[in-house]
Amino acid sequence: MPPSRTYDHDAIRFGGIVNRLRMERRWTLRYVAKLCGMNPTYLGLVERGENVPSLTTILRLAAVMGVPASELLAEVELAKYGARAKKSPDGE
Q1: Confidence at residue 6, expressed as pLDDT on a 0 to 100 scale
Q2: Alpha carbon separation from 25 to 22, 82, 85 (Å, rounded)
Q3: Element (H, E) at 55
Q4: Cα–Cα 20 to 30 A to 14, which of 4, 23, 58, 67?
Q5: CATH number, domain containing residue 59
Q6: What is the pLDDT of residues 9-56, one digit of tens each?
Q7: Is residue 91 part of a domain?
Q8: Which backbone phi and psi does 14 adopt, to 5 degrees?
Q9: In a domain, 80, yes or no
Q10: What residue ranges in the chain does DSSP mark as E strands?
């Protein structure tokens, strides 16, 4: 029997965002991986949410995509928590 996989839902959300940004730019997986200095297979794993990226990977991807890393992570939070992620702790 194959081992069961557990998925990190935040990694899946992050990977989907990276994939969307890459597709919007019409860049290939191989091209982005080269710009980031990583293996295309690894980048594919990240985009599918099958690997939890390191902080270094997040920062490299953000720089290559031309967006602040904070925006990538904010989008993950928004997808996870919905409108609650936009509100401040005091409800405003």
Answers
A1: 73
A2: 5, 26, 27
A3: helix 55-65
A4: 4
A5: 1.10.260.40
A6: 999 999 999 999 999 999 999 999 999 999 999 999 999 999 999 999
A7: no
A8: -60, -45
A9: no
A10: none
Q: Summarize pLDDT for 58-89 with one digit per residue, the tens.
A: 999 999 999 999 999 999 999 999 866 555 55
Which residues constitute the domain of residue 38?
Answer: 1-66
- C-alpha radius of gyration, the chain, whole number: 14
Contact 10, 80 (CB under 8 A): yes
Report the pLDDT value the prediction gives residue 30, as an integer from 0 to 100: 98
DSSP 26: T
The one-letter amino acid at 41: T
Confidence tier at 7 by pLDDT (50, 70, 90): confident
**pTM of the full predicted structure?**
0.82
d(CA 29, CA 27): 7
User: Per the domain annotation, does 10 fall within a domain?
Assistant: yes
In a domain, 81, yes or no: no
Q: How many domains would you assign to the chain?
A: 1
Closest CA to 15 of 50, 67, 55, 40: 50
